[in-house]
Amino acid sequence: MARSELSGFFATLDLSRPEAVRDALLEVVPILVREYGDLASIAAAEWYEQVHPSSYLALTVDGADAARVQGAVRYHAGALFSEDQAKALAGLQGSVQRFVAYSGRQTVARNVALDPLRPRFARVPSGPVTCAFCSLMASRGFVYVTKETAGLTDEFHNDCDCQIVAQWDRDSAHIEGYDPDAMYDRYLVARDAAQSSDPKVILSHMRELFPDQFTDGHVH
Fold first, then answer.
1. Is the pTM of this model over 0.90?
2. Strand ranges inside the chain, DSSP E
3. Cβ(153)–Cβ(164) under 8 Å?
4. Average pLDDT per block of 10 residues along the chain, 220 residues long
5. Distance (Å, whole) CA 40 – CA 144
6. DSSP 3-state assignment of 130?
7. Rg, C-alpha atoms of the chain
8. Which of 12, 54, 83, 95 can bridge 72 by disulfide, Cβ–Cβ 3.0-4.6 Å?
9. Based on the number of CB atoms within 10 Å of its own CB, is 67 exposed (0-12), middle (13-18) or buried (19 or more)?
10. Rounded to the nearest 5°, which phi and psi values hold at 95?
11. What are the structural domain ranges in the chain?
């Protein structure tokens, strides 16, 4: 919904005046992110309450910082001063998706951290195929919220479809299509092939060794 509204607003702008377009986007995009981020946070809190095994009042979280949103707008607005002005909208749509989704993801992560029942959580890709980076992150499976696992809830790219999912009963919980063991096996194969502990090098080997498994696989 946020992406659609952004596209509609962008279509009304006079692209022959890139400075004015940039300034308009700096004003409107943070508002879109705040409004739809609040909706995402509320929806995530309601979901958490519905699936919780007992009575629990979930908390919402504040959305993405306005300065971060404006920083992304300034970055993508650079394309307005080029021959490929449509690139600005494409980049902004990806950023808006990430910032809005941030509110929902962080709401779940925050409640997992505060929940007295100490549920575990997983980062779960929701599409049929995901990128190598998200597969690596999701291969951790269901873990407790700790400083060591913070990256599972903090590191997301534009257009990422991963969700943070809580689990209270490991014996009854099952998510169709989510197989962290298989993901981790691919990671181990790539790590052995790379003969390196550098995540960037391992990810490159994952894309080359399993090109059909990732959206960014390298097909030779």
1. no
2. 120-125, 162-167
3. yes
4. 96 96 97 96 96 94 93 97 95 96 93 91 88 92 75 85 87 79 94 93 95 84
5. 23
6. strand
7. 19
8. 95
9. exposed
10. -65, -40
11. 1-116, 118-220
